[in-house]
Amino acid sequence: MVEVEEVSNKMQAQMRLHPAAAAEEEDADLPLPALFDKASHLHSLASSSSLDQEGIRKGVDLLRRCDEMVSKLGLFSSNETKDDISTANLKYLLVPYYLGEMTERVAQEDRVPVLKASQDHLKEFISICEALELISEDELEISRQKQPDTMANRRAQKVARFKRQKAAETKLLEIKERKERRRRSLRAAALSAPIEAGEEDAFEDDGEEEREAWLATISLALCKAFDLLDMLKKEEEMLLAVKERQAKDGNAFAREMLDERTKRAEAWHHNAANRAPYSKPADPITCATFAQDVIEEQVFHKHMSTNTSR
């Protein structure tokens, strides 16, 4: 949790130095519902890659404050289940998930603390959902069995998770279409005759549908959280391996990678020139992918050394 606080404090300090920090003061007195709406809107923009770093840091700050307010208000208890949570409060279960996703998008020179902070938020989300009995038995069974990390087990996990994800997406689509049909019917009825006493009961379905929608959204978020957590763990392991190699070999490792990169670039240009009259050009090799090459090279060497030692 120390890493989480360090990353959060660093991001807050950077935001205060920015002119946009004035907007933070405007949001200081917002109640939780309004704060969550603003934060979830920024999360939605970030998910569609429509948000710059300033917006991402703003979203992280808003979500962090949402998280603090949820804790202070004591909205969720460890001795409750999902049935004890009011429909109006269900959406706040998503705060640590949104925080984990947006934290992962923060760009800074040392990415490892960002990865650690993001994983901590995702684990918090999963832990809360497990306590409230929101995680499927299949997912819990997989996590408790601690099966060997084989290709077959990973594939089975992904297939099961994909099915749950599609089921949640289908449920949300059904609710959306159902509400739209009812809205059209009510609009047509209102045009033909005024709503009589008792006919407003049709609106009562909205409360149940809202609950269904939030539960489906949480189920979908859980699928994504497990997948993202797996991905972030792997990325952290690879970056730490690269750091270890660099600390051990120093500049020799960087020169080795640069020499290898130069050879690959020369080979690419040579092959591209030969292919030019016959095919569309391939994607060029740029410095932007150097870090990924370092990671892949480290993983390759690790894999080869493992095989040769057998």
UniProtKB/TrEMBL annotation:
GO terms for cellular component: cytosol. Pfam families: TAP42. GO terms for molecular function: protein phosphatase 2A binding. GO terms for biological process: regulation of dephosphorylation; regulation of signal transduction; TOR signaling. InterPro entries: TAP42/TAP46-like_sf (IPR038511), TAP46-like (IPR007304). Belongs to the IGBP1/TAP42 family. This is PP2A regulatory subunit TAP46. It comes from Oryza glumipatula. The lineage of its organism: Eukaryota, Viridiplantae, Streptophyta, Embryophyta, Tracheophyta.
